TrEMBL record:
GO molecular function (one): nucleotide binding
UniProt-listed InterPro entries: HepT-like, HepT_RNase_toxin
UniProt entry keywords in alphabetical sequence: Hydrolase, Nuclease, Nucleotide-binding, Phosphoprotein, Toxin-antitoxin system
CC per GO annotation: toxin-antitoxin complex
Protein name (record): DUF86 domain-containing protein
Cross-referenced Pfam families: HepT-like
Length: 126
């Protein structure tokens, strides 16, 4: 699969899909239920890794895009991906839960706005 600036909408879409999956998996779940469900934990962590990897791909193919959108935590998402991927059994699941509750809704809005902006720019020939 090629990595080019034209892939930017794909990578943003991957982030959006991963957020939607996490929200679907945890929608009716309390923090206690999440902390007791290895399956939910594994599913969430996998999708956080996808968010981080897609964020890294965006930074690789279009660093100017990342610079132009400093409020979107793409670098942090990649750092979190590394912590999750390499932390193995040292992951603080309470921190993961707080991220689900506090950070993902904002990130979802940001990603949707970016995708809409790209779509509008494409529609008018930019």
């Amino acid at each position: 699969m090629s990595r080019s600036p034209q892939r930017l909408p794909d990578y943003l879409g991957h982030i959006s899909q991963a957020i939607e999956r996490i929200q679907r998996y945890t929608d009716q779940m309390s923090e206690i239920a999440f902390l007791q469900s290895e399956m939910a934990q594994d599913a969430v962590i996998r999708n956080l890794e996808i968010i981080g990897e897609a964020s890294r791909n965006i930074a690789s193919v279009d660093p100017d895009f990342v610079s132009a959108n400093p409020d979107v935590p793409l670098n942090f998402a990649y750092e979190m991906r590394n912590a999750l991927s390499h932390g193995y059994f040292q992951v603080d699941l309470s921190v993961v839960w707080k991220m689900i509750e506090r950070d993902l809704p904002t990130l979802k809005q940001q990603i949707h706005a970016l995708l809409a902006g790209i779509s509008n720019a494409t529609d008018i020939g930019i």
